[in-house]
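It is worth pausing here to work through a concrete case rather than discussing structure prediction in the abstract. The textbook approach is simple: state the sequence, then state the predicted structure, then interpret. We follow exactly that order.
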Amino acid sequence: MGATSARGRSPLLAALAAATFLTACSGGPGTGIGGSGSSMSLAEKAMSAGDYGTAANLYQQAFDANPRSVDPLVGLGRSYTGLGQFSRAEQALLEANLRKPRNPEILLELSRTQLAGGKPQAALTNLEVASKRAPRNIQITTARGIALDRLSRHKEAQAVYREGLARNPTDFALLSNLGLSLGLSGQTDEGIRILSELSRDNASSARTRGNLALVYGLAGKDREAAATLSRDLSPQQVQSNLAYYRELRALLRQGKPIGNVQ
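Step two, the predicted structure:
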């Protein structure tokens, strides 16, 4: 979670704005609606390699070959999201949803795009429908929590994360998002405890460390935040983030919401 201040977007926070979202958003369309063989296969490989432009072209070829199919539309949505073309991605996924209404996996992809595009309320609406259709889907549960956090409804988000952890107590994404949510709601000690432990896990990344640094910053522990950030950023970037953390800390102390500061 994380973001930009009125003075501009911090390099690390630009990545962290999607950190919780990306942590929970791996996997392909999986809607089981068939596309066009070779183009779909190549598109999936391009997606896996992070070549979103090529993937979009290939998904478009698959859709052109079979305009009644749904999987290429989902793939287009994912590809355009990867390219930062959120409106275009949303249109593809809305069409997929029209063709296969209330499909939880399509709704999940649509909500991910809406989260990335700064539409947490729309995402939450779709995730609530998806959750009723697939109540044990851990990715839907995680995304619901993220949407609530983006709306600064942290207590509700934490309840959702804990609901998922009751089913899967060691899930990395749920724990990571819970730790960040606790920090955003002012429960920094508990957030630091969770995130510092996760940062030692093999599954951790710069995003995990960045979220830990953010919670350190919210707790006023600038030295620890700087040490954490220095593993991945230049000294200038570290100082930029520390200044941003001080702004967020001031908002938090004033009781102002910071969950959807982007």
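Step three, interpretation. Residues 1-35 have pLDDT under 50 and may be disordered. The CA atoms of residues 77 and 89 lie 4 Å apart.
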